[in-house]
Amino acid sequence: MTSPGRITVPASWERMKLSALTQHRLVATEDADGFVLAMGIVMDVDQDLHVVHVQTRLTSLEQVETLHVGDLSVDPHTFRDSRLAPRGC
């Protein structure tokens, strides 16, 4: 389910809110000790298959314990970022 530079995250992970995972949103993967393993960009959210495709340097989710969702959107081609509006605004 993985290829270099792209991982598939099962959206069935406990406490994951698919609504927060919008295309091009910045995410961070952390291990069990809270250390960031890699940053990533959400490329696609497949509601039907309950998976999230993330562009990242990781090739496996083996050590990933937490997926933190950021408040930035990052263009995967230019890497220009923009802040997303806070919820409720």
Separation, N- and C-terminal Cα atoms: 37 Å
Low-confidence stretches: none
The class by helix and strand makeup works out as mainly beta
Which range does the strand content fall in? 35-45%
Average predicted local confidence, pLDDT: 80
General shape: globular
The top level CATH class name: Mainly Beta
Biggest sheet strand order reads 1-4-3-2-5-6
Structural commentary:
The model has no long low-confidence stretch (mean pLDDT 80). A hairpin with a 5-residue loop joins strand 2 (25-30) and strand 3 (36-46). It contains no helices and six strands. Strands 1-4-3-2-5-6 form a six-stranded antiparallel β-sheet, with no helix packed on it. It is mostly beta strands. It has strands at 6-10, 25-30, 36-46, 51-56, 66-74, 81-83. The chain has a single domain (6-77), classed as Thrombin, subunit H (Beta Barrel).
Short description:
This protein has 89 residues and is mostly beta strands. The protein has strands at residues 6-10, 25-30, 36-46, 51-56, 66-74, 81-83.
Layout: helices, strands, pairs:
Layout: E1 6-10, E2 25-30, E3 36-46, E4 51-56, E5 66-74, E6 81-83
List keywords for this structure.
89 residues, mainly beta, Thrombin, subunit H, 6-stranded antiparallel sheet, 45% strand, globular
